[in-house]
Amino acid sequence: MSRALALRNRQRTRALNTPLLRRVILHLLQNEFAVRAYELGFHFVAPAEMARVNQQFLQHAGSTDVITFDYREVNEPAKLPGETLHGEIFISVGDAVRQARQFSTTWQGEVTRYVIHALLHLRGFDDLEPAARKLMKREENRLLRKVATLFPLRALARPA
């Protein structure tokens, strides 16, 4: 049973408290998703790097908030509790700051939302169709509220 979680902060938009972020992610994996094994890489990047990833791999122009690469086998079924998650996630902290202003939230809450969003994708949730997007958003909101009661998300802002 493999448990590998790598967090790489490659942006300077905001100083991240990666030890706290690791605890949040581990809580989600173990307590909310009941995942026993995982091999995950989280990359916290600037909008310019996110735009390059978005163009190179998805052929979409510009930055975006989160991109999830699911490395499970193509014909492997959607994840069930206890199954292994294997993926790579790119999160644009600059986009989190921008969207926090737009939605009157905190950038730390937005980063946490993107983490949850990515993990939901790895668990088989999709947001391409309106009904599926609504279901995914509802679960995302539920998990964000729960995590916010358990962890001081504002403390994800590490003093520079």
Oligomer: single chain
Amino- and carboxy-terminal Cα gap: 37 Å
Overall SS class: alpha/beta
Low-confidence stretches: none
Could you tell me the number of beta strands?
4
Describe this structure in words.
This protein starts with a strand and ends in a 10-residue tail after the last helix. The protein is an alpha/beta fold. It is built from five helices and four strands, in the order E-H-E-H-E-E-H-H-H. The longest helix has 21 residues, at 130-150. The model has no long low-confidence stretch (mean pLDDT 92). The protein is globular and about 35 Å long. Strands 1-2-4-3 form a four-stranded mixed sheet. Helix 1 links the parallel strand 1 (3-10) and strand 2. It has helices at residues 18-32, 47-58, 93-103, 107-122, 130-150, and strands at 3-10, 38-45, 66-70, 85-92.
